[in-house]
Amino acid sequence: MPSSRFAPSAQWRRILPAWGLGLAIAATAAAQAALPPGVERVTSVEGITEYRLANGMRTLLIPDPSKDTITVNITYLVGSRHENYGETGMAHLLEHLAFKGTPRHPNVPKELTEHGARANGSTWYDRTNYYETFAATEENLRWALDLEADRMVNSFIARKDLDSEMTVVRNEFERGENSSFDVLTDRLFSTAYLWHNYGKATIGSRADIENVPIDRLQAFYRLHYQPDTAVLVVAGKIDEARTLGLIAQYFGAIPRPDRKPPVLYTSEPTQDGERSVTLRRVGDVQYAAIGYHVAAGSDPDYAAIDLIGHVLGNTPSGRLHKALVETGKATRTFADTYQFHDPGYAVFAAEVRKESSLDAVRDGLVQTLDDIVNNPPTPEELERARAARLKQIDLDLNSSNRVALQLTEWIGMGDWRLFFLHRDRLRRATAEDLQRAAARYFKRSNRTVGLFVPTPKPDRSEIAPVPDIAGVLKDYVGDPVISPGEAFDPSPANIDRRTARSSLPGGLKLSLLEKKTRGRTVVADLTLRFGDEPSLMNRRTAGELAANMLMRGTATRTRQGIQDELDRLKARVRIGGGATSVNAAIETTREHLPAVLRLVNEILREPSFPATEFEPLRQERLAGLEEQRSDPTAIASLAFQRHLRPRPKGDVRYVQTLDESIDELKTLSLDDVKRFHADFYGASYGELAIVGDFDPKELTAVTGDVFNGWKTPRPYARVVEPFQEVAPVSQSFETPDKANAYFIAGLSLAVRDDDPDYPALVLGNYMLGGGFISSRLATRIRQREGISYSVGSTLQASSLDKNGSFTVRAIYAPENAGRLETAFKEEIARALGDGFTADEIKTAKTGLLQSRQVSRAQDSELAARLGALQFLGRTIAWDAELDRKLEALTPEAIQASLARHLDPSKISTVKAGDFAKAAMAAPRP
After folding, report:
1. What string of DSSP letters covers 638-699?
2. What's the pLDDT at 17?
3. Domains detected in the chain
């Protein structure tokens, strides 16, 4: 249930990208048929049709026969922007309480698990949303619509639930407090916004979270959770007319409220001079950040602002990267432009190692940002930014469930059609538009950073009010509709029947599953395997950096050249790997797949390993490692891994300490990395799985040609991971000034995935802590006692070695360490002693099996699974057999299997947190 202002500090991502869809107005059967009583058709754009119920609720239908799933997403036009004094965090806290049930749906997490749904809720400044993605059946659709209709007006919002959930939300707040960068940027916003609620993080203040009265929450709920402030989106494999009838049935009976939705009138005054803020906390790297007030997300200027953000913040072509990273002053640079309902904000930042000058980086940021006004983006920079943004749009529009969720942001901005308009504005933006926007907003008086300096002649940025959205969109039409794809059955039997398996002449194993997809998309998953235990001794770090360097240049292309070609080909390619293998995940369209495969082959086979890229990569990794020195999660996780996996130093399976990793990274040379690639990379051993819209005959020829003659230099032998039993330990690490603690516990298991006990262990773990927040551990530790925001368990078992593990993880406040460990031990003991009820098992089977079906319906997951199965010499019939074994499990078999493998006396526990400070503090509820 995310609510934090920022993406994880390890990689600052764009939070509100300009999503696109590429659908067109179509005279659908539902639009032509008689509408249910009280329902009117409002408008259609690119295949999305909006209807309005008599009670004021709007609904959007997005039919997509190509996926065997349905997504139901309801957005309420309420977020932290709507909170009053003393109510910060209320919208997010209310989102949590909406999962506590209604009279008709008393246990929402349990129902989500039963239906195998991928579900969550989220809160942001302008909106709150709840969604479920599930297997496409009418029963599931009826359930989801009934659930959302009921919790719109009948959620409990009870005192007892607030008492437990408050501490869970507080724990989520504390998790954000662990990140120095997140807190710094939070301070940046609160300094830049003096009056508008955008200056307050959505998670809220600690005092408000702890003390909000239940009657204020209930009043907030009754005011904002009403049909006239809600927009319902239903996307996927639906019959449009039938679905519209069900929506009218479940939501139409809810009366329109007597009150009018509140109108917010607070606006941020024009900033009249530079502002600054300094944060001093425990940490291991430095940051500098600069922000500017900018136009609202619906303003015509925003497309230019979006493109300027890419020109400045892209890696490696961005001006900030070139000015600060390539010169060795900073390890990374970031840029994010926030697209809000009201005038928003643009932030630019840099990460700096301790031994480097923070002042120099701050000055470099200022100089580069000032320079964008005097030296506006070049035509090349503009087209590169435009291609990157439009590629993102073109790829995202091909997934109806992505669109269903992403529309939430545009609904919050004022109208769902804004994302089409924003896409069109990106297409039309000129270099003059970017120069004008830079001159208008990137002014010294509009900047938050540095010191206050009096100026005799104020130079201020006047931010325009929100445009007349209805007038702007009055006659909007959009692009033609994209190809819809086929109705694909994701059952194992059909997948096996449709999958063609072969081997290329060079040895690479090939799996091809051809099907018609929305937008003619296709995904591929390529894994190359290399090395053996003796040859990989002391070469693990070199292997990791070899994989990291692949996308940074080839014999004929620079790092930016690779990105430009991927943008031109409308492709996403992610490459990662280490000492034993490298993997490339590909997403593109039918016409571009052959060219993308050739490009990926070039990247893997002919990397240039440029020296200008190696040192920035090393510095980035060093900064990441150094940041972990004070992070409770990293400290506890590393200690736990080192204990359960003891190996000789230098062994490829050896888990290094942070100091060892840092020392080895400092001494590693570029020649070491080049030698690793020369010694090991080749296409003799591995798998390529492709799922989607392609010509099988053409693709077989293309893959044979692309990978022909690339032999792996040395024989490959899989590195075996034999079972090792270790004595249990209980370790505790102090991490001063960290509000959030981390707990990890578990043991190794002498189990392989073909072990007779494996299905019972899978289902047992799912009920114990592996499912949604209705698992035993989550119900006790999160739902009932409110100790942890995130708690769960994981079962792992190899397909080749009799070696697995069971692990439990949780975040929590340090003063709750004793309560957490007691609850953990008691729930393990209860599962082993009492087992699980027949009702629990029935529910878990239904949810787990449906969840596995949803996974098979995702093309990227399916491609990765087909490749992994081919490596193991299996087909997906193996998954079908596991499904049958799961379905046949009895309570006695599950309890017996858990008792054979989960020995509490052999469980190791590791925790990290500021326990000394907690011991000195007064007890809190």
Report:
1. HHHHHHHS---TTSTT----HHHHHHHHHH--HHHHHHHHHHH--SSSEEEEEEES--HHHH
2. 28
3. 29-251 (3.30.830.10), 285-398+407-450 (3.30.830.10), 492-706 (3.30.830.10), 730-920 (3.30.830.10)
